[in-house]
Write a structure and sequence with these properties.
Blueprint lengths: L4 E8 L5 E8 L2 H10 L3 E7 L5 H5 L7 H16 L4 H11 L3 H15 L4 H6 L7 H13 L2 H56 L7 H14 L1 H22 L1 H13 L3 H22 L4 H10 L4 H15 L5 H7 L4 H13 L2 H57 L1
Antiparallel strand pairs: 1-2, 1-3
Length: 406
């Protein structure tokens, strides 16, 4: 089988506009054949040079959502002020702080100058501008309201960032405290308990049961048992991660996450907020409902919700409303489906979706606050009991010895 490589090409379409892109093929002849099938007359075909490992590690800085928000707002202001698209891109490509984004904007500007639409130029950079962003830009260009759409996009990305930050904040605290507890116990077991064990060995007699348990655990961790435990944990983590990457594993894990007593409720509220915010923004921007649902499903972040949204999309393509199949999916709370039904009936679906998103943003805030307040004492109790049991177990023989001396 012939080895395939990536070729960069440029050419003219039937309208005479310049287009460019990349094609993976075995030879230049194959690239030319593929381009002719697309009615493109190639003007240049070059093999793309692969970057070395060092070059990849020292590559361009990652483009963050914050960079996209700043660029989008600035670009919207320039378009609203009447600046031509190419001129606005030229100005921003020279002044954005992120060099990776600057290089992308230069390429976008070149494509737009060559006759491509702004949305099509953005689609060539999916790692920077996702499908939602490109579809909304396309709707803005078609409707002549690109500046308004860009403002909505910036607002949407900002609210998504805040939501993500809240969820991360809720998860970081218990993970940090639990990790500290495990580290403290491990240090006590491996370094402190052996000192007491040597001292107890000179006393003779039978040690209390809690002390014997702690000493046995310490001996196990200090010897080959510690290495076995570490290897087992690493293997378990790698195995779970690999299984999580499969479709079946992702579905199973996402089902479990949504059914968790405390975090499950938080994840459902986050999913509702994200779904309604995305759909509301896209609907008000003129993106077709079926395209909007497909993009929303892909960006859901949970396989269970993704499947439910895609089922809703299939039902809508058959002529049904959004609320009816969404209620049958039993993923979102009844209040959400009822409000969506009202929005569809009154012709104000986008407004209703944004109201639901605002409501659930507040709900996520409250849930995160309550969760943090509840987790603090629980984690402190867990840490106190764990460390306290070890300390008491170590001092029991000493108390017993003092009693015998008296």
């Amino acid at each position: 089988m012939a080895q395939t490589v990536v070729f960069q090409w440029s050419g003219k379409n039937p309208r005479g506009a310049v287009e460019s892109g990349e094609i993976t093929a075995a030879s230049k002849e194959e690239v030319m054949s593929q381009l002719r099938q697309k009615n493109i007359s190639p003007t240049a075909i070059t093999e793309k040079k692969s970057k070395s490992l060092f070059a990849l590690s020292m590559g361009q800085p990652k483009v963050t959502p914050k960079d996209i928000v700043v660029f989008t707002r600035q670009f919207s202001t320039m378009i609203d002020a009447g600046l031509p698209l190419v001129q606005a891109l030229d100005i921003l490509s020279s002044q954005v702080e992120n060099k990776g984004l600057a290089n992308v904007l230069v390429k976008v500007k070149t494509d737009v100058e060559g006759g491509a639409t702004y949305a099509d130029a953005l689609r060539k950079h999916p790692k920077v501008f996702d499908e939602l962003y490109c579809n909304m830009v396309a709707a803005g260009e078609a409707g002549g309201i690109l500046d308004t759409i860009l403002q909505r996009l910036a607002g949407y990305i900002e609210k998504s960032m805040k939501l993500k930050k809240k969820v991360k904040g809720a998860l970081v605290y218990p993970i940090v405290v639990s990790s500290v507890a495990i580290l403290v116990v491990a240090v006590i077991m491996i370094f402190v308990v052996p000192i007491f064990t040597t001292m107890f060995a000179t006393l003779g007699g039978t040690l209390p049961l809690p002390t014997r348990i702690i000493i046995n655990i310490s001996n196990f961790l200090k010897g080959i048992g510690g290495l076995i435990s570490l290897i087992t944990l690493v293997a378990l983590f790698v195995g779970i991660s690999r299984f999580r990457q499969t479709k079946k594993g992702q579905l199973i894990f996402d089902k479990i996450l949504l059914k968790l007593p405390i975090f499950g409720l938080l994840l459902i509220k986050v999913a509702v907020s994200k779904f309604t915010r995305t759909m509301g923004t896209m609907t008000s921007s003129g993106v077709p409902i079926l395209d909007g649902l497909e993009i929303t499903a892909k960006t859901a972040g949970n396989k269970v919700i993704e499947i439910a949204v895609m089922e809703v999309r299939s039902a809508i393509s058959e002529g049904k409303t959004i609320a009816e199949p969404l209620s049958k999916a039993k993923v979102f709370p009844p209040m959400v489906t009822h409000m969506i039904a009202v929005g569809e009936a009154t012709g104000a679906l986008d407004t209703m979706l944004n109201k639901i998103a605002d409501f659930y943003d507040d709900e996520v805030d409250n849930t995160v606050s309550n969760l943090t307040s509840m987790m603090e004492p629980l984690l402190m109790v867990f840490l106190g009991i764990t460390v306290g049991f070890v300390v008491v177990a170590m001092y029991l023989p000493i108390f017993k010895m003092i009693t015998l001396i008296k």
